[in-house]
Design goal:
The complex is a heterotrimer.
Chain A: H1 2-27, E1 40-45, H2 48-63, E2 70-75, H3 78-90, E3 100-104, H4 105-114, E4 119-120, H5 134-139, E5 141-142, E6 145-146, E7 148-150, E8 156-161, H6 162-168, H7 180-194, E9 199-202, H8 207-215, H9 233-248, E10 251-254, H10 257-265, E11 271-275, H11 278-282, E12 292-295, E13 315-320, H12 325-334, H13 340-350, H14 377-384, H15 397-412, H16 417-431
Parallel strand pairs in A: 1-2, 1-3, 9-10
Antiparallel strand pairs in A: 3-13, 4-13, 5-6, 7-13, 8-11, 8-12
Helix pairs in contact in A: 2-13, 6-7, 7-9, 8-9, 15-16
Chain B: H1 2-6, H2 8-31, H3 36-40, H4 50-60, H5 63-94, H6 98-110, H7 115-128, H8 135-143, H9 146-156, H10 161-169, H11 174-185, H12 187-203, H13 206-211, H14 220-227, H15 235-265
Chain C: H1 2-15, H2 34-68, E1 70-71, E2 78-79, H3 85-92, H4 94-126, H5 133-141, H6 148-158, H7 164-171, H8 185-213, H9 217-225, H10 230-241, H11 243-258, H12 262-266, H13 279-289, H14 294-319
Antiparallel strand pairs in C: 1-2
Classes of the chains: A alpha/beta, B mainly alpha, C mainly alpha.
Amino acid sequence: MKRFTKLTAGALVLAVPLALTLTSCSGSGGGSGEGDGDETLTVWTWDPAFNIYAMEEAEKVYQEDHPDFTLDIVEVPWDDLQTKLTTIAQSQAFDELPDIFLMQNNAFQKNGINYPDLFSDFSDSDIDFSEFPQSVVDYSTIDDVNYGVPFDAGTAITALRTDVLEEAGYTVDDFTDITWDEYLTIGKDVLAKTGQPLLSGQAGSADIPMMMLQSAGASLFDDEGNPTIVDNAALEAAIDTYTQLVEAGVLVEVNSWDEYIGTLVNGTVGGTINGVWIVGSIQTAEDQDGKWAVTNLPKLDTVSGATNYSANGGSSWAISSTADVDLASDFLGATFAGSTELYDTILPKAGAVANWIPAGDSDVYNEPIAFFGGQPIFADVVKFGPEVPSNNTGAYYYEARDAVSTAMTQIMGGTDMTTALEEAQANVEFAME
Amino acid sequence: MINKLRSLPGYALLAIWALFSVFPLYFMAVSATNTSKDVLSSRMLPGTALFENIAALFSTQDVVGAMTNSFLIAVGTTILALTVCSIAGYGFEVYHSKGKDAVMAILLLAMMIPFAATMIPLFQLFARVGMVNSLWAVVIPMISTPFLILLFRQASRSFPHEIIEAARIDGLSELSIFARIYVPTMKSTFAAAAVITFMMAWNNFLWPKVILVNNSVLTMPMLTANISAGYVTDYGVLMLAVLLSSLPTMIVFLLLQRQFAQGITGAVK
Amino acid sequence: MASDVKTRTKTASRRNQPPPLNNYIGDRKPWLSNTRRRSLTGWGFLLPAALLILFMSFIPMAQAFVLSLQTGRGTRLEFADPLWYNYERLLNDDVFRLTLTNTFIYLIIQVPIMLALALVLANLLNNPKLRFKAVWRTAIFLPCAVSLVSYSLVFRTLFANDGFVNDMLMSIGAIGGPINWLGQPETARFVIILGLLWRWTGYNMVFYLAALQNIDQSSIEAARMDGANAFQTFWYVTVPQLKPMIVLTAILSINGTLQMFDESWALTQGGPAHQTMSMAHYLYEVSFQKNPNFGYAAAISYVILMLVAILSFIQMKVGDKRD
């Protein structure tokens, strides 16, 4: 035993440093800027089933006209990606950047304003940004310059279990183009007749009120970047509606993302309101096949400028400052901003709905989806896209969102709404000092 | 009979705590054999989805690569850390002086600063010497930890200095005394330090994530994070990844347990 | 020195060794005498470790301190006016004060329970007459093999509203309806404390076991023969000999708890409205999730550093006496 341990120890002491060095040699290619071979681009993005798959298909499309082109796609979770970008920017190590990276729309302003050195703009590219919904392009526009190509649509939908509705005597049409008051009434009725709430959401998460806010064309910041949390009629209406939904039991609050997905997959709730990307999670519940339908959102009737459309999340492709800008913008322009073929391919497999308006005209988009009772949900969603009002996020979006979440937790616990919102505004102003 | 009764509370406490310790791990193992849906409804019995989960995991992630990298990092760090810190701890204790106490106190300060604060300056340092993305860059900051030095110093206090004196008289050099007398004697301390360092290096999440910028080199914690970051998370696959990630550390402990036991017989008398 | 010479001469004559290295030429000691050489060797032993710490910890720490005196967003940093602006701001930051309270709650409740439990368990395990020793030891230490993020995920699933803990408690009739563990501040903190205990007790137990195996068994046998019972032996004979190790684990636990990050981040995500967020988690949030304010984050880290330093200093003074 002793000799064996000694031998293994000795062997390890020799072998490991060698292995470390060898792996380092292959791993440290440093950055991936221009010197990386003529027609190769590196991409950082997350989610193999969705974003990475889309990029792989885009590569194939571009290769039809550019056979030497290759993509080096690296999987990087969003949190991770944000940390890396911040680290690189703070230490000025821009060589480490990839050519293209995906960025959450909500974070675009923050990164663009704080770290402009990370980005290249699209002013020299041929991309026609009017082919994307204004609200989505606005996220990646800073001082009227475009820094991102919109990709994954965060367009919001109301997804409903048709069998639950039927049991209570309703159909999807009863939920289309309605107001929140009507939604609440129907929701209570469905709850009484079937025992199922229509909605679930994470406690303390501001997702649903934020969607309501955006649907009325309102934001948490004004054009100068000042927080508008107090005296915000739309926000107050949104929170008020949310409170009523929870009190009536129509919306059930859970404590984590996993639990939220659980309520959908286990059939605890009869529907949800979220970005269209939620259908991927819903579809993992195979026993619910054919029992869902999709429609637009209720509107905040008491507020002027209210619409039935909103968004949650969504992301855009950005080109880094050390990239081969011509190649990258040509690639993005030919694929995500120019190829119906691409969008047709990725839609059925990944449910990746295009922001790009021309994509919605294709046949693939108009195909009925069995899981959703034969409804061509993707065509419908693309039609929602241009109707979504813009949302001013600003650099302090996450602070404001957090403050509103805290306020909501307090309001749900009984605090007066005005007091809670005043505190939230004070917190944001403090954070902006 | 009376003796057995007296030792009952002891056994009871051990049993309760052991059960409490193992249960979440049991849940983790069982979840790895279930589908995502079943995991979310907290199913407690093993299911039949193990092979599905394995297939899904290995086809979407480079598990072998991540395991290899984590292994290299963990073993490399452990070997280097044990060498550097044991000799430092020995040095602090056996060659004790007021000056060394002062140095020790200063070094202890180093472990009191949260990592998130030194992350960026450290990254800058490695970026300047061009070592970003290398496994060495992951290992080097983890080698010298004040706590490991402290461990060896504290443990060395039980090591009798008379033996050292006798060895000096016998003409051995200081380094030989350390290597030939101290090291074999303090086996249980080395074993404990090895287990702790291996685990710390294996489970280290934040620093590898930051320094391995282009993600072409992955560690197991990074791989697990990748899985939970998608829009749709398969919780069965996630638990499987967590399980696989925890197995090596468990095995290391099981192997070195015997060293603990051997340490008793070889202990200083 | 004279006695040394005598011993050496004796040994030399016994063994016919060549004369020792520090032959005196005349009366002058060569500069590199044994003691000096030993002292230098001693310092040499410390060198690699100390150098590494200098470069990997101290220099970044110094840079972080300079950062804490600067304000601004992103890379547009400039020295604050007054210099200690960030620290002043911390005093007015409600969220920071909340995270400070949270962290101290964890510290005061969790650490003493954990160390006491680890000590008792280690002592039980050290008993030569104990049966199934390997089973207990393995089971109790196993939690340490799991990464912090992994076990946080498992605990989060177990304590979910429709999770196992609620199901079990309801089925044995202990509670009427599901407890919203992670949705209320008190219960959420409880879950974190439970998680910390679960994860780290075995870890400290290992330290104590290693120390127990290095102490003198004869002192325990002597006490037993003098008629002391198990508790008295434990308290008056074993524990004092473990003092160095107890101080060490106490310092490590204080350090670890004050810097706690992963549990707050993965288990509760800071809990309902920052109610379970730890200071280090807030630091991370300010740096990477919110609008990056690295000067402020650095200031937070220095506050943590000062707290840990003060507490550890007190610990060492109180517990650490060289015999």
